Amino acid sequence: MLTRVFLLCAALLLFRTTVVDAQQPAPAKTKAPTLSASFFTSYTYLSYSIVDQGTSARPMEAKGVGGTLTLHPDGTYQKRLQLSGNGGTMNFSQDGRFTFSGDQIIFRYTDSKGQARTDQGSFRFQPKARTLTLTLVGYPAGNKGIYTLRAD
């Protein structure tokens, strides 16, 4: 089971959908969140779950999640994510730009092959709890990754 979860984690992270800006649906009309300056900070990954519609509609939690995500007020970010499994650790590093509208967030970055990539989804920031939940569109369609982070 651990092997399957590990492989699903790797597949969702490495083969996520690339979204062409011109093909993106318009963001849902939601009230824009009021984000305090505390939103723009470094976060530590607490958990990562995968929804794989081919297996189950219930999220499967990945074990051994660690790393940080830093969101800057100028719209840049740095992601340093680690996933453990199969006796080793996989490291994922991204530096890019993010934008948000309402409860939707988009991360744009260049992958290790020099290709422009986009991850998009929704976010929920809870300033009192100092937590950020990101639900990002996965591959294939219908799948998603759910990240829970805590502000440092």
Automatic annotation (TrEMBL):
<protein>
    <recommendedName>
        <fullName>DUF3471 domain-containing protein</fullName>
    </recommendedName>
</protein>
<keyword id="KW-0732">Signal</keyword>
<feature type="signal peptide">
    <location>
        <begin position="1"/>
        <end position="22"/>
    </location>
</feature>
